[in-house]
Specification:
With 424 residues, the protein is an all-alpha fold. The protein has one domain. It contains 22 helices and no strands. The chain is globular and about 70 Å long. The mean pLDDT is 83.
Length: 424
């Protein structure tokens, strides 16, 4: 029965049927097979989203949308560029660093691509970096937003495993920096190889000016992390607080956002949040099949029979998640595969928080991996280019991210040091 449902799900996926509908169809088919009442479907739908931590999702999406349209992202880029724009590869380094900081507020990969790409893509071309490199850099840099906390993917992982959201957020800092450093090294090497210089000089005046302008923007991530780790707010409360803060700064301080545009961002947030919640709700019903068929237990038993070492188990999990990321968005992948893979990782002795970071980094790579990486299509839509042009520029960044993934996977201290230090 399970094999039949799985094959049917793959067929529906390639036919373009939404993931939430596939979840529901699989669950209803399985329950009908077992003669289970359809009341269980309703209970599963409502019970899955009856978790207050999920309210953080629309909060961070909204804050990122306001930042992108309200001038906060522009000031962030200008400030970073004032420091990095003069060094070899300065503009690409600015792109990576801006993705790190913007991701520390929005937690959404596609929003980061849209917010930063419109500003940095023309500048990259003007400075001689070329179409292929520039498209690849912007598409891949957006994935950092999933790794740097607050991350919507981490929130969903916490919902699926009952992990601490606060510990996951802390765990994402150092791995996110490792990913940025690996990408940055390649950017500097590329600039040196192609003899691309910025043609700019250091300016104390520009650094001071941009620092004054960015103070209000930097207040957003400070509010999130001081609020959460100072014990003043939960992640959900922090998401709402930063949303209000972003509107206040964009409308009344920078005065680059109108209330009509705030309403537009609100509508976009509602649509994106609804997509996330309906996937979570449908997955709650689908999880019944996994429990009824004892799928996780069978997977653990299969690993035992194969006699794989913990190192090889992690290799296998990474390969599975990289393939999954090629075809599914991170939210759907977290919901579908976490109940299957976490028991396997737990049996191999992997820490839950470390596993959450490994999971997140894999799905971040999937955001720009062909054929269905979402960032590829966002980039194509924004810059009106073909997907083949974007993909050609992604291969070097794919390699750099794989190097970072290997480091993060096999150096658990990168993920566990800060959570163990701050939240003993």
């Amino acid at each position: 029965m399970l094999a039949t449902i799985g094959i049917g799900a793959l067929v529906l996926l390639f036919l373009g049927i939404p993931m939430w509908m596939i979840f529901l169809l699989m669950a209803i088919t399985g329950m009908t097979w077992h003669g289970v009442s359809m009341e269980v479907v309703v209970q599963g739908l409502t019970g899955s989203i009856d978790k207050i931590v999920l309210l953080a999702v629309p909060g961070f999406i909204f804050a990122g949308g306001v930042m992108g349209k309200g001038g906060m992202s522009n000031r962030l880029i200008n400030w970073i560029s004032a420091f990095l724009g003069r060094v070899p590869g300065g503009l690409p380094l600015t792109t990576v660093a801006a993705a790190e900081l913007f991701g520390a507020i929005s937690g959404a990969s596609s929003a980061t691509v849209a917010a930063l790409g419109k500003i940095l893509y023309p500048a990259l071309l003007k400075n001689g970096y070329g179409d292929r490199f520039s498209l690849g850099l912007i598409s891949s840099s957006g994935a950092i937003a999933i790794i740097i906390p607050p991350s919507i993917t981490m929130i969903l992982f916490a919902v699926m495993t009952n992990a601490s959201v606060g510990r996951l957020f802390l765990a994402g800092f150092l791995p996110g920096i490792v990913v940025g450093l690996c990408a940055g090294v390649y950017c500097v090497w590329y600039a040196l190889k192609h003899k691309i210089t910025s043609g700019r000089t250091w300016s104390v005046g520009e650094i001071l000016r941009t620092s004054r302008e960015v103070v209000w923007t930097l207040g957003a991530p400070a509010l999130i992390f001081v609020g959460i780790y100072g014990g003043y707010m939960t992640p959900t409360e922090a998401s709402m607080a930063v949303s209000v803060y972003a509107v206040f700064v964009s409308v009344y301080v920078y005065r680059e956002l109108t209330w009509a545009e705030v309403w537009e961002v609100t509508r976009e947030t509602a649509m994106l949040s609804a997509k996330v919640f309906i996937i979570v709700a449908a997955s709650g019903v689908f999880s019944w099949i996994l429990t009824a068929e004892a799928v996780p237990q069978k997977m653990v038993a299969g690993i035992n029979e194969m006699g794989l070492s913990p190192v090889m188990v992690l290799v296998m999990i990474n390969v599975i998640l990289l393939i999954v990321g090629m075809f599914m968005d991170p939210n759907s992948a977290v919901i579908l595969f976490t109940p299957l893979l976490w028991p396997v990782a737990e049996h191999a002795g992997v820490d839950l928080i470390h596993f959450g970071i490994i999971y997140t980094v894999n799905l971040a790579i999937g955001m720009f991996t062909p054929p269905f990486g979402l960032n590829i299509f966002v980039t194509c839509s924004i810059f009106k280019v073909s997907s083949s042009r974007v993909v050609r520029g992604l291969y070097p960044f794919f390699v750099t991210y794989l190097v970072a993934l290997a480091i993060i996977t096999y150096v658990p201290a990168l993920s566990l040091y800060l959570p163990n230090l701050v939240m003993k």
